[in-house]
Design a protein that fits this description.
Elements (H helix, E strand, L loop, with lengths): L6 E8 L7 H12 L8 E3 L16 E2 L3 H13 L2 E10 L2 E9 L5 E5 L9 H4 L9 E3 L2 E7 L6 H4 L8 E5 L7 H15 L2 E5 L2 E3 L5 E3 L3 E3 L5 E4 L5 E8 H10 L14
Parallel strand pairs: 1-2, 2-4, 3-4, 8-9, 9-10
Antiparallel strand pairs: 1-15, 4-5, 5-6, 7-8, 10-13, 11-12, 13-14
Helix pairs in contact: 1-2
């Protein structure tokens, strides 16, 4: 693999989501993302960015549908790695699926492992079984989805396999403290940058979301803390800083070995 470029520009897109209206959400996001052309390397959208966190078949994609094609078009136009999740259908099963789409159209897929039972997600969606690492511009990026954040074993950075973890989410305001705290914890324990992108506004079930999207330093320090406003913020990460810290503080060499049973 090629050596990583020293800096990686990451853009967090914190936005409201029109309930169960894919065409409206794609149109709104397309307009918002234009400002990022030539300004960034990685663009992160919230979980279920085209419908909101809904538990029905409406808007589910079969094969490479409109949302997948839209992501490919936008990734190419902006020349970025574009990440976000939406509901997909394969046969009789539905998945909360994250796509990471490269400018050349290549698609990386991650199906949400931990399904939020308190919201009934486990009753509608099938859970994923495999984590993935996306290599882009020499950086190793590990994508996760919302409730995955509560499970440190699944996020564990075994053998420093990733440099940046990304969590896309629809994380309600009622549990905002947990969101912010766990993002910092994942960064500290995994010696990696950690980004979390959440939505704002209210969904069709009356749940409020206050955003609090963030990008955290490998020491758990907030580099970007977006608060409650719908906005886009970009930050330039340094691979040299990350490598130096891992060299000087190699806590990963003392990590416990374990095996995940799926």
């Amino acid at each position: 693999m090629a050596n990583p470029q020293d800096s990686l520009r990451v853009s967090l897109v914190q936005t409201e989501i029109v309930w169960e209206n894919p065409s409206a959400n794609l149109a709104i996001l397309e307009e918002k993302l234009q400002v990022l052309q030539g300004q960034t390397d990685v663009v992160v959208l919230p979980e279920m960015f085209n419908t909101g966190f809904s538990m029905n078949a409406h808007g589910a994609e079969i094969g490479q549908g409109p949302s997948t094609q839209w992501m490919q078009i936008m990734a190419k136009r902006l020349h970025v790695l574009l990440l976000g999740s939406f509901k997909c259908q394969e046969g009789n099963l539905f998945y909360n699926r994250l796509l990471a789409v490269e400018p050349n159209g290549k698609i990386h897929r991650y199906d949400k492992r931990h399904l939020f039972r308190m919201g009934g997600e486990h009753e509608f969606y099938a859970g994923g079984t495999e984590s993935i690492i996306v290599s882009y511009l020499g950086w190793h990026i590990a994508p996760f989805i919302c409730y995955d954040l509560r499970f440190p074993v699944w996020s564990r950075n075994v053998a420093m396999r990733y440099d940046l973890a990304i969590y896309v989410a629809n994380w309600p305001a009622a549990r905002a403290h947990a969101w912010s705290t766990l993002l910092k914890a994942r960064a500290i324990e995994n010696l990696a940058y950690v980004a979390g992108v959440n939505r704002t506004g209210e969904d069709g079930n009356g749940l409020a979301y206050q955003g609090d999207s963030a990008l955290n330093h490998f020491k758990g320090v907030g580099l970007v803390e977006m608060g409650q406003l719908a906005d886009i913020q970009t930050y330039r990460l340094s691979y040299a800083d990350l490598f130096q810290f891992r060299t000087q503080f190699p806590a990963h060499l003392d990590a416990d070995e374990f095996e995940i049973k799926r």
